[in-house]
Amino acid sequence: MEPARKLPDRTACRQADVLEGVMLARCPSCRNTFSTDRPGTQVCPVCGKPLIVPEPQAPAPLAALVDGAAGTPWERRAELGFWKGWGQTLQQALFEPSKLFASARLDRGASQLGFAVLTTSVFSAIGQVFDRLLRARMQGYYDQLAASLNLPPEMLKAVALADSPGWFATLLIALPLFVLFFVYANAAVTHFFALITGQSKRGFPATFAACTYASAPLVLLAVPGCGSIVAVVWLVVLTGVGLKQTHHISAGGAAGVTLAPYLLICCLGVVASIAAAMRMGQMVGTP
After folding, report:
1. Confidence of residue 162 (pLDDT cuts 50, 70, 90)
2. Mean pLDDT over all residues of the chain?
3. Residues 196-214 pLDDT 10s
4. What is the DSSP string of the chain?
5. Model pTM?
6. Does residue 156 or residue 74 have the better pLDDT?
7. Which of 244, 173, 168, 232 is nearest to 206 (CA)?
8. Residues 94-119: tens digit of each pLDDT
9. How far apart are CA 216 and CA 112, in angstroms?
């Protein structure tokens, strides 16, 4: 075989160089492969004969590359309708969570964030309104309790200011921002423990999908009394189910990732309580 000829000011490009350019082309005359940064009519850098480099094929759609899931009803709300998509997603999250999380798309983070912020903000605001109405009916009891405890006037003023209509309206307006921060913080902490335990099989988008749809039980924030307690417990359970489905990990691995942050908080709380008790003991024992 005749060695490749090198033209003036040209560099011969062998098969080993195929990864150096943007696209690859093969000369039909000398059969050598070379890299080029543009399609169209060109000259082979090996044999010097003209050739035409075709346009590169379009890449596959992002959905095909990222995930093959069909999408949750909320992610298909343009097809199903806004309220129907939200309602079916809520129903599946509460009663068929495995089905919901298995259908979640990992390239729909913004849509999943919208579901969490909308659901949590609206029902938390409803709960705040109910709570304020209940406090108004029991205001006389609160006043008697404050008088019996001999609370400082400054504290009473602060409580009255925090309970004023202006502050209440500000809280309702800023509520979506607080929810937004909570969603990202919860997903970040959960993913951190998924990373250190080796359970992050499909990256942060999978953790984010699990954490956002796991917020569905927060509709119970609108229920006065124990609604918030039930909502938080249910949220923790759904987070574990979601991690198992979105990351394709075992139930034990998902439970470990979900419970690890709460275990850490408990340990820190115990340490803080012991430290505070020791400090109080030193203050009492000091003459």
Report:
1. low
2. 82
3. 999 999 999 999 999 999 9
4. -PPPP--TT-----GGGTTSSSEEEE-TTT--EEEES--EEEE-TTT--EEEEPPPPPPPPHHHHH------TTTTHHHH-HHHHHHHHHHHHHH-HHHHHHH--TT-HHHHHHHHHHHHHHHHHHHHHHHHHHHHHTHHHHHHHHHHHT--HHHHHHHHHHTSHHHHHHHHHHHHHHHHHHHHHHHHHHHHHHHHTT--SS-HHHHHHHHHHTTGGGGGGGSTTTHHHHHHHHHHHHHHHHHHHHHT--HHHHHHHHHHHHHHHHHHHHHHHHHHHHHHHHHHH--
5. 0.68
6. 74
7. 244
8. 999 999 999 999 999 999 999 999 99
9. 11
Distance between CA 54 and CA 43 in Å, rounded?
13
**Tokens 């938390």 belong to which residue?**
124
Token pair belonging to 223: 């229920």
pLDDT of residue 123 exceeding 50, the answer is yes
Question: CA-CA distance, 162 to 19, in Å (whole number)?
Answer: 64
